[in-house]
Amino acid sequence: MSSVLPSLDHIGSVALLGTLVVAESVWLSENSAARGHRFPNVLGALLAVIPIGALAYLVAYRPEHPRMRPASPAERVALTVFFAAVGSFAAVGLFPASPLGLRELLYPLGLVVLLPLSHLVVYRRGYRVVTSPVSRQVAALRRRRE
Question: Other C-beta atoms within 10 Å of 8: how many?
Fold first, then answer.
């Protein structure tokens, strides 16, 4: 009989996935509020569980609406945790599965190890360096379409 609750073998990946969803929700909510969206909390909650909606937000809504205020501390912390969680999933996903559940122990460890690196990306110029080429490509595609 299966249970709704995860087994102890999968608790690390479930906890990391929960961290990822909460961080994404907070970042989307804070970012959309800074861009003047009327319902930023609803948008953040919905787009955190609908990945294609988050992608549409990043490609369509975000470039069209400039920031009205700088990034808040909560937005930067959420983005830092989000980048570290995604990096942990990617890095630990490269390890082969082990019978002792080594991957499940490595997910939180990967998060802790990648937090300083993602902090440098978000709080230094690295964030602009990472995202500006994507913004330029989206703008070029829009110009070609017009």
Answer: 9
